[in-house]
Design a protein that fits this description.
heterodimer; A: alpha/beta; four-stranded antiparallel beta sheet; B: 12 helices
Protein backbone atom coordinates (compact mmCIF):
# COMPACT_ATOMS: atom_id res chain seq x y z
CA UNK A 1 0.00 0.00 0.00
CA UNK A 2 1.34 3.43 -0.89
CA UNK A 3 1.78 5.59 2.14
CA UNK A 4 0.86 8.84 0.41
CA UNK A 5 -2.37 7.36 -0.95
CA UNK A 6 -3.76 6.63 2.50
CA UNK A 7 -6.61 8.85 3.48
CA UNK A 8 -6.78 9.94 7.11
CA UNK A 9 -10.23 8.98 8.40
CA UNK A 10 -9.85 9.77 12.09
CA UNK A 11 -7.57 12.42 13.44
CA UNK A 12 -7.37 12.85 17.20
CA UNK A 13 -5.54 15.92 18.43
CA UNK A 14 -4.54 16.57 22.04
CA UNK A 15 -7.58 14.85 23.42
CA UNK A 16 -7.97 15.34 27.17
CA UNK A 17 -10.80 14.15 29.38
CA UNK A 18 -11.21 14.85 33.06
CA UNK A 19 -13.90 13.58 35.38
CA UNK A 20 -13.65 16.12 38.17
CA UNK A 21 -10.00 15.99 39.25
CA UNK A 22 -9.51 12.60 37.66
CA UNK A 23 -7.49 12.78 34.44
CA UNK A 24 -8.68 9.94 32.21
CA UNK A 25 -7.22 10.99 28.86
CA UNK A 26 -4.01 12.96 28.87
CA UNK A 27 -3.30 14.86 25.68
CA UNK A 28 -3.90 11.88 23.42
CA UNK A 29 -3.08 12.27 19.71
CA UNK A 30 -3.20 9.74 16.91
CA UNK A 31 -4.73 9.20 13.53
CA UNK A 32 -6.19 6.26 11.70
CA UNK A 33 -6.09 5.85 7.94
CA UNK A 34 -8.75 4.46 5.64
CA UNK A 35 -8.55 0.69 5.37
CA UNK A 36 -6.71 0.38 8.63
CA UNK A 37 -7.72 -1.99 11.41
CA UNK A 38 -6.46 -0.50 14.61
CA UNK A 39 -6.17 -2.59 17.74
CA UNK A 40 -6.62 -0.50 20.83
CA UNK A 41 -4.92 -2.08 23.82
CA UNK A 42 -4.40 -1.13 27.41
CA UNK A 43 -5.20 -2.26 30.93
CA UNK A 44 -8.70 -1.76 32.30
CA UNK A 45 -9.28 1.90 33.09
CA UNK A 46 -6.57 3.06 30.67
CA UNK A 47 -9.04 5.22 28.74
CA UNK A 48 -9.95 3.01 25.78
CA UNK A 49 -13.69 3.14 26.32
CA UNK A 50 -13.57 6.85 27.13
CA UNK A 51 -11.76 7.58 23.86
CA UNK A 52 -14.39 5.62 21.95
CA UNK A 53 -17.23 7.42 23.70
CA UNK A 54 -15.74 10.75 22.73
CA UNK A 55 -15.12 9.76 19.09
CA UNK A 56 -18.78 8.73 18.81
CA UNK A 57 -19.99 12.04 20.34
CA UNK A 58 -21.50 10.33 23.36
CA UNK A 59 -19.28 12.25 25.75
CA UNK A 60 -17.77 15.66 25.21
CA UNK A 61 -14.00 16.06 25.52
CA UNK A 62 -12.55 18.36 28.17
CA UNK A 63 -10.17 19.71 25.51
CA UNK A 64 -8.72 18.68 22.19
CA UNK A 65 -10.46 17.78 18.97
CA UNK A 66 -11.40 14.88 16.75
CA UNK A 67 -11.77 15.10 12.99
CA UNK A 68 -13.69 12.44 11.14
CA UNK A 69 -12.84 12.62 7.44
CA UNK A 70 -11.96 16.26 8.02
CA UNK A 71 -15.13 17.11 9.95
CA UNK A 72 -15.05 18.12 13.59
CA UNK A 73 -17.08 15.88 15.93
CA UNK A 74 -18.35 18.85 17.94
CA UNK A 75 -19.27 21.28 15.16
CA UNK A 76 -20.50 18.63 12.72
CA UNK A 77 -21.66 16.01 15.14
CA UNK A 78 -24.61 14.78 13.07
CA UNK A 79 -22.44 14.32 9.98
CA UNK A 80 -19.66 12.55 11.85
CA UNK A 81 -22.07 10.34 13.77
CA UNK A 82 -23.65 9.16 10.53
CA UNK A 83 -20.24 7.98 9.30
CA UNK A 84 -19.63 5.85 12.37
CA UNK A 85 -20.97 2.47 13.42
CA UNK A 86 -20.50 1.82 17.13
CA UNK A 87 -20.77 -1.23 19.32
CA UNK A 88 -20.46 -0.21 22.99
CA UNK A 89 -18.83 -2.58 25.45
CA UNK A 90 -22.08 -3.38 27.25
CA UNK A 91 -23.92 -4.18 23.97
CA UNK A 92 -26.99 -2.12 24.82
CA UNK A 93 -30.07 -3.32 22.91
CA UNK A 94 -33.77 -2.64 23.28
CA UNK A 95 -34.71 -5.83 25.09
CA UNK A 96 -38.45 -5.56 24.52
CA UNK A 97 -38.11 -5.61 20.74
CA UNK A 98 -37.73 -8.58 18.46
CA UNK A 99 -34.52 -8.88 16.48
CA UNK A 100 -36.07 -7.97 13.12
CA UNK A 101 -38.06 -5.09 14.64
CA UNK A 102 -34.91 -3.68 16.15
CA UNK A 103 -32.82 -4.04 12.99
CA UNK A 104 -35.56 -2.49 10.88
CA UNK A 105 -35.73 0.41 13.32
CA UNK A 106 -31.95 0.86 13.07
CA UNK A 107 -32.12 0.82 9.26
CA UNK A 108 -34.87 3.46 9.28
CA UNK A 109 -33.32 5.75 11.86
CA UNK A 110 -30.00 5.53 10.03
CA UNK A 111 -31.80 7.01 7.04
CA UNK A 112 -31.59 4.11 4.58
CA UNK A 113 -33.80 4.73 1.56
CA UNK A 114 -37.14 2.92 1.73
CA UNK A 115 -36.32 0.56 -1.15
CA UNK A 116 -32.91 -0.32 0.24
CA UNK A 117 -34.00 -1.35 3.70
CA UNK A 118 -35.15 -4.87 2.85
CA UNK A 119 -32.14 -5.94 0.77
CA UNK A 120 -29.75 -4.40 3.30
CA UNK A 121 -31.51 -6.15 6.20
CA UNK A 122 -31.18 -9.45 4.38
CA UNK A 123 -27.51 -8.82 3.77
CA UNK A 124 -26.76 -7.84 7.37
CA UNK A 125 -28.74 -10.75 8.79
CA UNK A 126 -26.81 -13.16 6.58
CA UNK A 127 -23.45 -11.57 7.39
CA UNK A 128 -24.06 -11.73 11.13
CA UNK A 129 -25.77 -15.13 11.12
CA UNK A 130 -29.05 -13.97 12.62
CA UNK A 131 -31.53 -15.83 10.42
CA UNK A 132 -32.52 -18.29 13.16
CA UNK A 133 -33.28 -15.68 15.80
CA UNK A 134 -35.02 -13.00 13.73
CA UNK A 135 -38.39 -13.43 15.45
CA UNK A 136 -37.01 -13.87 18.96
CA UNK A 137 -37.34 -11.10 21.56
CA UNK A 138 -33.90 -9.64 22.20
CA UNK A 139 -34.02 -10.33 25.94
CA UNK A 140 -34.16 -14.08 25.23
CA UNK A 141 -30.95 -14.10 23.19
CA UNK A 142 -27.69 -15.69 24.32
CA UNK A 143 -24.62 -13.54 24.83
CA UNK A 144 -23.23 -14.58 21.44
CA UNK A 145 -26.38 -13.64 19.58
CA UNK A 146 -26.66 -10.34 21.43
CA UNK A 147 -23.15 -9.53 20.30
CA UNK A 148 -24.08 -10.34 16.73
CA UNK A 149 -27.19 -8.17 16.86
CA UNK A 150 -25.01 -5.38 18.24
CA UNK A 151 -22.61 -5.85 15.38
CA UNK A 152 -25.46 -5.96 12.84
CA UNK A 153 -26.69 -2.66 14.23
CA UNK A 154 -23.22 -1.13 13.91
CA UNK A 155 -22.68 -2.10 10.25
CA UNK A 156 -26.27 -1.50 9.09
CA UNK A 157 -25.62 1.82 7.34
CA UNK A 158 -22.29 0.65 5.83
CA UNK A 159 -20.36 3.19 7.88
CA UNK A 160 -16.89 4.36 6.86
CA UNK A 161 -15.72 3.85 10.41
CA UNK A 162 -16.47 1.01 12.77
CA UNK A 163 -15.77 1.39 16.47
CA UNK A 164 -16.04 -1.80 18.49
CA UNK A 165 -15.47 -1.87 22.22
CA UNK A 166 -14.30 -5.35 23.19
CA UNK A 167 -16.44 -7.07 20.57
CA UNK A 168 -15.28 -10.59 21.43
CA UNK A 169 -15.53 -10.73 25.23
CA UNK A 170 -17.76 -13.49 26.48
CA UNK A 171 -17.87 -15.34 23.17
CA UNK A 172 -16.82 -18.92 22.55
CA UNK A 173 -13.82 -19.65 20.28
CA UNK A 174 -16.03 -20.31 17.24
CA UNK A 175 -17.87 -17.05 17.68
CA UNK A 176 -14.60 -15.20 18.21
CA UNK A 177 -13.32 -16.57 14.91
CA UNK A 178 -16.49 -15.46 13.15
CA UNK A 179 -16.34 -11.93 14.52
CA UNK A 180 -12.65 -11.74 13.69
CA UNK A 181 -13.31 -12.75 10.08
CA UNK A 182 -16.07 -10.20 9.90
CA UNK A 183 -13.81 -7.43 11.18
CA UNK A 184 -11.18 -8.40 8.61
CA UNK A 185 -13.69 -8.36 5.77
CA UNK A 186 -15.05 -4.99 6.77
CA UNK A 187 -11.56 -3.63 7.40
CA UNK A 188 -10.56 -4.10 3.77
CA UNK A 189 -12.46 -1.00 2.74
CA UNK A 190 -13.39 0.69 5.96
CA UNK A 191 -11.65 1.91 9.04
CA UNK A 192 -11.97 -0.14 12.19
CA UNK A 193 -10.92 0.63 15.74
CA UNK A 194 -11.46 -2.13 18.21
CA UNK A 195 -10.35 -2.68 21.76
CA UNK A 196 -9.57 -6.06 23.18
CA UNK A 197 -7.71 -7.89 25.91
CA UNK A 198 -7.06 -10.93 23.74
CA UNK A 199 -3.62 -10.27 22.33
CA UNK A 200 -3.60 -13.13 19.84
CA UNK A 201 -6.60 -11.45 18.26
CA UNK A 202 -4.52 -8.38 17.59
CA UNK A 203 -1.85 -10.14 15.58
CA UNK A 204 -4.55 -12.03 13.69
CA UNK A 205 -6.56 -8.99 12.62
CA UNK A 206 -4.86 -5.62 13.05
CA UNK A 207 -2.51 -3.70 10.79
CA UNK A 208 -1.66 -1.40 13.62
CA UNK A 209 -1.72 -1.38 17.40
CA UNK A 210 -1.90 1.43 19.90
CA UNK A 211 -1.24 0.65 23.53
CA UNK A 212 -2.44 3.21 26.05
CA UNK A 213 -1.93 3.44 29.79
CA UNK A 214 -3.26 6.10 32.17
CA UNK A 215 -4.68 8.04 29.24
CA UNK A 216 -1.39 8.25 27.32
CA UNK A 217 -0.06 6.37 24.32
CA UNK A 218 2.81 4.22 25.53
CA UNK A 219 3.45 2.21 22.40
CA UNK A 220 2.36 1.85 18.80
CA UNK A 221 3.28 0.12 15.59
CA UNK A 222 2.30 -2.87 13.53
CA UNK A 223 1.98 -6.17 15.43
CA UNK A 224 5.11 -7.35 13.62
CA UNK A 225 7.08 -4.33 14.79
CA UNK A 226 6.00 -4.77 18.38
CA UNK A 227 6.74 -8.47 18.30
CA UNK A 228 10.15 -7.74 16.75
CA UNK A 229 10.96 -5.28 19.51
CA UNK A 230 9.61 -7.12 22.55
CA UNK A 231 9.58 -10.77 21.51
CA UNK A 232 5.81 -11.11 21.67
CA UNK A 233 2.71 -8.98 22.25
CA UNK A 234 2.22 -10.14 25.85
CA UNK A 235 5.73 -8.96 26.62
CA UNK A 236 5.11 -5.63 24.85
CA UNK A 237 1.90 -5.12 26.80
CA UNK A 238 3.53 -6.02 30.11
CA UNK A 239 6.53 -3.78 29.65
CA UNK A 240 4.68 -0.78 28.24
CA UNK A 241 1.87 -0.70 30.82
CA UNK A 242 3.89 -1.52 33.93
CA UNK B 1 -31.24 18.46 7.41
CA UNK B 2 -34.45 19.63 5.78
CA UNK B 3 -37.73 19.84 7.65
CA UNK B 4 -39.18 16.69 6.21
CA UNK B 5 -36.17 14.58 7.15
CA UNK B 6 -36.18 16.18 10.59
CA UNK B 7 -39.80 15.18 11.12
CA UNK B 8 -39.24 11.74 9.63
CA UNK B 9 -36.65 10.92 12.26
CA UNK B 10 -39.01 12.07 15.00
CA UNK B 11 -41.70 9.89 13.46
CA UNK B 12 -39.45 6.79 13.34
CA UNK B 13 -38.46 7.26 16.99
CA UNK B 14 -42.04 8.01 17.94
CA UNK B 15 -43.24 4.80 16.34
CA UNK B 16 -40.60 2.79 18.16
CA UNK B 17 -41.51 4.35 21.53
CA UNK B 18 -45.21 3.78 20.97
CA UNK B 19 -44.49 0.18 20.05
CA UNK B 20 -42.61 -0.34 23.31
CA UNK B 21 -45.67 0.86 25.21
CA UNK B 22 -47.75 -1.85 23.62
CA UNK B 23 -44.97 -4.43 23.91
CA UNK B 24 -44.95 -4.10 27.68
CA UNK B 25 -47.77 -4.82 30.13
CA UNK B 26 -47.70 -1.19 31.29
CA UNK B 27 -49.96 -0.14 28.44
CA UNK B 28 -52.72 -2.60 29.27
CA UNK B 29 -52.53 -2.03 33.01
CA UNK B 30 -52.62 1.70 32.35
CA UNK B 31 -55.66 1.61 30.08
CA UNK B 32 -57.43 -0.87 32.36
CA UNK B 33 -56.91 1.18 35.52
CA UNK B 34 -57.77 4.41 33.74
CA UNK B 35 -61.07 3.11 32.35
CA UNK B 36 -62.16 1.21 35.45
CA UNK B 37 -61.40 4.01 37.91
CA UNK B 38 -62.77 6.67 35.57
CA UNK B 39 -66.04 4.87 34.85
CA UNK B 40 -66.52 3.78 38.42
CA UNK B 41 -66.05 7.28 39.83
CA UNK B 42 -68.30 8.73 37.15
CA UNK B 43 -71.23 6.33 37.37
CA UNK B 44 -70.97 6.24 41.16
CA UNK B 45 -72.33 9.78 41.35
CA UNK B 46 -73.95 10.08 37.93
CA UNK B 47 -77.26 8.45 38.90
CA UNK B 48 -77.33 10.10 42.33
CA UNK B 49 -77.11 13.55 40.78
CA UNK B 50 -79.52 12.51 38.04
CA UNK B 51 -78.16 15.02 35.57
CA UNK B 52 -76.77 14.35 32.11
CA UNK B 53 -73.53 16.17 32.83
CA UNK B 54 -69.87 15.16 32.62
CA UNK B 55 -68.61 18.00 34.79
CA UNK B 56 -68.08 15.54 37.58
CA UNK B 57 -65.87 13.34 35.44
CA UNK B 58 -63.60 16.20 34.47
CA UNK B 59 -63.29 17.34 38.07
CA UNK B 60 -61.52 14.16 39.09
CA UNK B 61 -59.72 13.45 35.81
CA UNK B 62 -56.73 15.63 36.83
CA UNK B 63 -56.35 13.45 39.94
CA UNK B 64 -56.33 10.22 37.92
CA UNK B 65 -53.80 11.73 35.52
CA UNK B 66 -51.62 12.65 38.47
CA UNK B 67 -50.85 8.96 38.94
CA UNK B 68 -51.06 7.82 35.37
CA UNK B 69 -48.91 10.43 33.61
CA UNK B 70 -45.76 9.73 35.67
CA UNK B 71 -46.40 6.01 35.11
CA UNK B 72 -46.24 6.67 31.37
CA UNK B 73 -43.09 8.77 31.47
CA UNK B 74 -41.07 7.09 34.23
CA UNK B 75 -39.26 4.62 32.00
CA UNK B 76 -38.75 6.82 28.94
CA UNK B 77 -35.28 8.07 29.95
CA UNK B 78 -34.58 6.11 33.14
CA UNK B 79 -34.68 2.78 31.35
CA UNK B 80 -32.45 3.97 28.50
CA UNK B 81 -29.89 4.98 31.10
CA UNK B 82 -30.18 1.86 33.18
CA UNK B 83 -29.86 -0.53 30.24
CA UNK B 84 -27.25 1.63 28.50
CA UNK B 85 -29.30 1.97 25.30
CA UNK B 86 -28.98 5.72 25.72
CA UNK B 87 -25.44 5.30 24.42
CA UNK B 88 -26.86 3.78 21.26
CA UNK B 89 -29.61 6.41 20.96
CA UNK B 90 -27.43 9.46 21.47
CA UNK B 91 -24.67 8.31 19.12
CA UNK B 92 -27.20 8.04 16.28
CA UNK B 93 -27.21 11.00 13.90
CA UNK B 94 -30.22 12.59 15.59
CA UNK B 95 -30.55 15.81 17.57
CA UNK B 96 -31.38 15.86 21.28
CA UNK B 97 -34.57 17.75 20.44
CA UNK B 98 -35.68 14.98 18.11
CA UNK B 99 -35.17 12.38 20.83
CA UNK B 100 -37.02 14.42 23.46
CA UNK B 101 -39.90 15.34 21.14
CA UNK B 102 -40.34 11.74 19.99
CA UNK B 103 -40.58 10.49 23.56
CA UNK B 104 -42.97 13.25 24.57
CA UNK B 105 -45.21 12.74 21.54
CA UNK B 106 -45.35 8.98 22.04
CA UNK B 107 -46.52 9.44 25.64
CA UNK B 108 -49.02 12.07 24.50
CA UNK B 109 -50.32 9.78 21.76
CA UNK B 110 -50.78 7.01 24.27
CA UNK B 111 -52.65 9.30 26.67
CA UNK B 112 -54.83 10.52 23.80
CA UNK B 113 -55.62 6.94 22.87
CA UNK B 114 -56.74 6.21 26.45
CA UNK B 115 -58.84 9.37 26.48
CA UNK B 116 -60.55 8.27 23.26
CA UNK B 117 -61.49 4.98 24.94
CA UNK B 118 -63.11 6.95 27.75
CA UNK B 119 -65.49 8.58 25.24
CA UNK B 120 -67.99 5.93 26.34
CA UNK B 121 -68.71 8.18 29.31
CA UNK B 122 -70.04 11.25 27.45
CA UNK B 123 -71.78 8.92 24.97
CA UNK B 124 -73.68 7.19 27.79
CA UNK B 125 -74.54 10.54 29.34
CA UNK B 126 -75.79 11.83 25.97
CA UNK B 127 -77.85 8.68 25.48
CA UNK B 128 -79.47 9.01 28.92
CA UNK B 129 -80.25 12.70 28.74
CA UNK B 130 -79.67 16.02 27.11
CA UNK B 131 -75.93 16.56 27.21
CA UNK B 132 -74.38 20.00 26.83
CA UNK B 133 -71.53 19.51 24.35
CA UNK B 134 -69.47 22.58 25.32
CA UNK B 135 -68.09 21.21 28.58
CA UNK B 136 -67.43 17.82 26.94
CA UNK B 137 -65.27 19.28 24.18
CA UNK B 138 -63.65 21.68 26.64
CA UNK B 139 -63.08 18.89 29.14
CA UNK B 140 -61.30 16.68 26.64
CA UNK B 141 -59.25 19.56 25.28
CA UNK B 142 -58.31 20.62 28.80
CA UNK B 143 -57.45 17.03 29.67
CA UNK B 144 -55.08 16.90 26.70
CA UNK B 145 -53.33 20.13 27.67
CA UNK B 146 -53.14 19.19 31.34
CA UNK B 147 -52.01 15.65 30.49
CA UNK B 148 -49.40 17.05 28.09
CA UNK B 149 -48.07 19.28 30.86
CA UNK B 150 -47.85 16.38 33.31
CA UNK B 151 -46.09 14.30 30.68
CA UNK B 152 -43.53 17.00 29.85
CA UNK B 153 -42.77 17.40 33.55
CA UNK B 154 -42.63 13.63 34.13
CA UNK B 155 -40.37 13.11 31.11
CA UNK B 156 -37.98 15.77 32.37
CA UNK B 157 -37.83 14.06 35.75
CA UNK B 158 -37.21 10.68 34.12
CA UNK B 159 -34.11 12.22 32.50
CA UNK B 160 -32.67 12.98 35.93
CA UNK B 161 -32.48 9.41 37.23
CA UNK B 162 -31.68 5.84 36.28
CA UNK B 163 -34.34 4.48 38.57
CA UNK B 164 -37.90 4.18 37.25
CA UNK B 165 -39.48 4.03 40.69
CA UNK B 166 -37.74 7.25 41.71
CA UNK B 167 -38.80 8.81 38.41
CA UNK B 168 -42.40 7.81 39.14
CA UNK B 169 -42.50 9.09 42.73
CA UNK B 170 -40.70 12.36 41.99
CA UNK B 171 -42.88 12.80 38.91
CA UNK B 172 -45.99 12.31 41.00
CA UNK B 173 -44.82 14.81 43.62
CA UNK B 174 -43.84 17.37 40.97
CA UNK B 175 -47.12 17.04 39.05
CA UNK B 176 -49.07 17.21 42.28
CA UNK B 177 -47.26 20.40 43.33
CA UNK B 178 -47.73 22.03 39.94
CA UNK B 179 -51.42 21.11 40.01
CA UNK B 180 -52.22 22.02 43.59
CA UNK B 181 -50.76 25.53 43.83
CA UNK B 182 -53.67 26.89 41.85
CA UNK B 183 -56.39 24.87 43.59
CA UNK B 184 -59.14 26.75 45.46
CA UNK B 185 -58.53 25.25 48.88
CA UNK B 186 -54.82 26.11 48.72
CA UNK B 187 -55.51 29.64 47.51
CA UNK B 188 -58.00 30.16 50.36
CA UNK B 189 -55.25 29.55 52.90
CA UNK B 190 -52.50 31.51 51.17
CA UNK B 191 -51.38 35.12 51.72
CA UNK B 192 -53.51 37.35 49.52
CA UNK B 193 -50.62 38.87 47.60
CA UNK B 194 -49.50 35.47 46.27
CA UNK B 195 -52.97 34.35 45.23
CA UNK B 196 -52.96 35.78 41.67
CA UNK B 197 -49.48 34.39 40.96
CA UNK B 198 -50.28 30.97 42.37
CA UNK B 199 -53.53 30.88 40.49
CA UNK B 200 -51.69 31.71 37.29
CA UNK B 201 -48.91 29.18 37.87
CA UNK B 202 -51.10 26.26 38.93
CA UNK B 203 -51.93 23.68 36.29
CA UNK B 204 -55.34 23.09 37.84
CA UNK B 205 -56.87 26.56 37.65
CA UNK B 206 -56.30 26.75 33.90
CA UNK B 207 -57.84 23.33 33.50
CA UNK B 208 -60.99 24.44 35.29
CA UNK B 209 -61.44 27.31 32.84
CA UNK B 210 -61.13 25.10 29.77
CA UNK B 211 -63.25 22.31 31.27
CA UNK B 212 -66.10 24.78 31.75
CA UNK B 213 -66.04 25.18 27.99
CA UNK B 214 -64.36 28.59 28.12
CA UNK B 215 -61.50 28.55 25.62
CA UNK B 216 -59.17 31.41 26.45
CA UNK B 217 -55.89 31.87 24.56
CA UNK B 218 -54.31 32.77 27.91
CA UNK B 219 -54.85 29.25 29.23
CA UNK B 220 -53.64 27.61 26.04
CA UNK B 221 -50.51 29.75 25.91
CA UNK B 222 -49.89 28.91 29.55
CA UNK B 223 -50.03 25.16 28.88
CA UNK B 224 -47.90 25.35 25.75
CA UNK B 225 -45.26 27.40 27.61
CA UNK B 226 -45.30 24.94 30.50
CA UNK B 227 -44.77 22.00 28.10
CA UNK B 228 -42.07 23.84 26.17
CA UNK B 229 -40.21 24.82 29.35
CA UNK B 230 -39.89 21.24 30.56
CA UNK B 231 -39.03 19.83 27.13
CA UNK B 232 -36.35 22.50 26.89
CA UNK B 233 -34.98 21.61 30.34
CA UNK B 234 -35.05 17.97 29.27
CA UNK B 235 -32.92 18.75 26.21
CA UNK B 236 -30.46 20.63 28.45
CA UNK B 237 -30.12 17.59 30.72
CA UNK B 238 -29.64 15.21 27.80
CA UNK B 239 -27.05 17.36 26.04
CA UNK B 240 -25.02 17.74 29.23
CA UNK B 241 -24.99 13.94 29.69
CA UNK B 242 -25.26 14.92 33.35
CA UNK B 243 -26.33 11.60 34.83
CA UNK B 244 -23.02 9.82 35.36
Amino acid sequence: MLKGAKLTMIEIKNLTKKFGQNLVLDNLSFSVAKGEILGFLGPNGAGKTTTMKIITSFWPATSGSILINGLDTVGNSLATRSKIGYLPETVPLYDDMRVFEYLKFVAQIRGLAEGKIKPRLKQVVATCGLTKVLRRPIDELSKGFRQRVGLAQAIMHEPDILILDEPTTGLDPNQIMEIRDLIKTIGREKTVIFSTHILSEVSATCNRVIIINNGKIVGQGSPAELIGKYGNLEQAFRELTK
Amino acid sequence: MNKLQYLKIIYILFKKELMSYFNSPIAYVFIGVFLIVGNWLFFNTFFLVGQASVRNYFSFLPWIFLFLAPALTMRLWAEEKKSGTIEFLLTLPITDWQAVLAKFLSALAFLTFSLLLSLSIPFSAAWLGNLDLGPVVGGYLGALFLGGSYLALGLFISSLTKNQIIAFILGLVACFSAFIIGADFVLANSPAIFVPIMKFLGLGSHFNNIAKGVLDSKDIIYYLSFIFLFLWLNVRVIERRAWK
